[in-house]
Design goal:
This is Cytochrome B5. This protein is α+β, with helices and mostly antiparallel strands. The protein has 3 helices and 6 strands.
């Protein structure tokens, strides 16, 4: 299976709005948070789906444990183009 690579522009499409799935990038990995109730409508404690939320995770007491149960959908480059 080929690993999907997300640029910042591509990840932004997965914001949990208007029927789109909610994806977040954390430390270079893209996770699907669409089915996590706390991420309803692509928002969670001021964080937005479709973005790299690595810095916010560093401040979270429980989030690293939560990541273990989330589906991984790809890798995040952060680059505008691959």
């Amino acid at each position: 299976m080929t690993t999907r690579i997300f640029t910042a522009e591509e990840l932004a499409k997965y914001n949990g709005q208007d029927g789109n799935p909610a994806y977040v990038a954390i430390d270079g990995t893209v996770y699907d948070v669409s089915n996590v109730p706390a991420w309803r409508n692509g928002k969670h404690h001021g964080n937005l789906a479709g973005h790299d939320v690595s810095a916010a995770i560093q401040r979270s007491l429980h989030m690293k444990r939560v990541l273990e149960d989330l589906p991984v959908v790809g890798k995040f480059t952060g680059d505008p183009e691959v």
